[in-house]
Amino acid sequence: MSDHWLARPATIRLLWCAFLAVLALTVAAEFAVEREAHFSVEGVFAFGAWYGFLACAALILAAKAMGAWLKRQDRYYEEPDDDR
Amino acid sequence: MIAEIVHPGLLLIGGGFALSFLRGRARALVALALPAAAIGLVLAAPEGVLWRGSWLGLEIAPYAVDRLSRLFALIFAIMAFGGTLFALGQVSRLELPAAFVYGGAAIGAALAGDLATLFIFWELMAVGSTLVIWSAGTSPAYRASLRYLSIHLLGGALLFAGIAGHYADTGSVAFARMTLDSAAHWMILAGFLLNAGAPPLSAWLPDAYPEASWSGTVFLSAFTTKTAVYVLLRGFPGTELLVWVGLFMVFYGIVYALLENDMRRILAYSIVNQVGFMVAGIGIGTQLALNGAAAHAFTHIIYKALLLMSAGAVLHATGRRKCSELGGLFRTMPFTTFCGSIGALAISSFPLTSGFVSKSMISQAAAELHLLPVWLLLAAASAGVFLHAGIKFPWFVFFQKDSGLRPAEPPLGMRLAMGLFAALCIGLGVFFEPLYALLPFPVEYRPYTGWHVVLQLELLLFSGLAFFVLLPLLRRTLTITLDTDWFYRYLAPVLVGGVETLARMARSAARDMTGGTAARLFALLRRLHGADGVLARTWSTGGMALWVALMLAAYLLLYYL
């Protein structure tokens, strides 16, 4: 039985290629628009791209570190009569 | 003019009581007509103080309209309409009337011209929302509703103390801009911030909201926190503390949402995150920032309700709420997937969605004041929103692995509600002028410049890249993450249990030490005063007469002596 077309490996590979192409196009679009940066760092080439990526990587790692300390089983607070 | 006589909030509250007597088609018609009428009334109401009076010696203005209050009353009424459309199939007969009282009280709070009226509607909101959680009918929901109510009653007490102090200082309860110059104003601010989901008591929100029914959470997401944003906008604009409180909320929401497994708790943390943007905007305090905070509250209510509707549709169809048990639902729920994804794009502020035209005003305000750290943190947070709500929610619920679930699309009313709000998310993103025209201050800001769009797309798309590259680190586990509610859900009961054990030990030790004496004393008392004791048993009439005669004789004798 073939799965939904969106879940096939070939489609997913295609989506990845399209995604990477869109990423490249977005960065290239910086040359096409008028710059109106308020800060010098905002004017650095592809600021949104590298800053967005690094910010997200930092957030994920921070969450991971916090999780190591604060994660508990999800029945932690539950009581015996719970009926969810 | 009818709009000056009929208060839209009281209309909904009264309508909520009326709804509890109706059934079937009449109930559905009345339930949809009331919020529609409230929308009309809010739009038709002229500016100014429409009702004024004197109550307990206070000069009050229970119905006052200006641009800011009209904007919030309008979005609350729109939300009541959309939420009702979504909830028509809800079997609980308590939930919709409770939601009407809740939504009506939120409108009443937005239209309150004085602090006394505000306080009454504020508390009514706590009651209405508790009943909404309660009507889910499960024991976790009941317990969560009690915790929720306790926290909100605490906030109400703070607010009341603050208002009383403010009245004692100034002799007026008029609701105007305040500064942090007295203990009373600090208490008012604390009461407001508690409802906004600010630290340290933010945990009430992700604790309680996800326990409501599939439709109840949709109502809950809109009113309490956004009423808090409204009162902060009116009471404390430009208070620098709020910038930092807001930024804390933004990152707290992201990190906790990243760790969360329950789809509606992800969205609940994301409410705190979004309200953080608004609170930060209020703290920045320029006209552009305040416009941005108000506009963001307006657009946020719509896309957050849409996200929770799509989650509610999944819960309604599958009965499951954990990401680790969901996935692959796009196969049989394409419409819900589509609408949920529109909501996800809007919360992420994608260009051409409502979030972009509102949130970018706050960042722009930070840039115009050259607040570099604030601007950098807001930009990082914008990327983080896409990470935790924009991709994570739709990815784990509708895509990722195939969970094997093949649920059907929800009933027509729910689909219509989702379609309506999805259309508003796109509509407000493309045709933003009507929204800008409603904002409290004149708007000169242009959202769609090439630079804004490219920068935002870079931020978002590369945050998407980070999500898929680091996906192994985001694998869902059957866990929760401890929050500040741990102190009152775990630590406090343990402490109370410990004190109880200590008291029991002390009691038994004391009994052992004094055991012999005490036991003899009690035996004597029982012998004399017990049921058959000498001094307690029933005496015969003859015996009584003899004793009385003897005592009289003794008295006579003593008298003569």
Protein model, in words:
The complex is a heterodimer of chains A (84) and B (561). With 84 residues, chain A is mainly alpha-helical. Chain A has helices at 9-28, 47-70; one strand spanning 71-73. The two termini of chain A are 35 Å apart. The mean pLDDT of chain A is 87. Chain B has 561 residues and is mostly helical. Among the domains of chain B are: 1-139 and 150-168 and 177-203, no CATH class; 236-407 and 436-470, no CATH class. Chain B has helices at residues 2-5, 8-19, 24-44, 67-87, 95-110, 115-134, 139-170, 183-196, 204-208, 216-235, 240-259, 263-284, 287-318, 334-347, 354-368, 372-398, 412-430, 433-438, 450-469, 486-529, 541-560; strands at residues 48-55, 58-65, 479-481. In chain B, helix 7 packs antiparallel against helix 8 and helix 16 crosses helix 19 (450-469). The longest helix of chain B is centred in the C-terminal third of the chain and has 44 residues, at 486-529. The mean pLDDT of chain B is 93. Chains A and B meet through helix 1, helix 2 and strand 1 of A and helix 7, helix 11, helix 16, helix 19 and strand 3 of B.
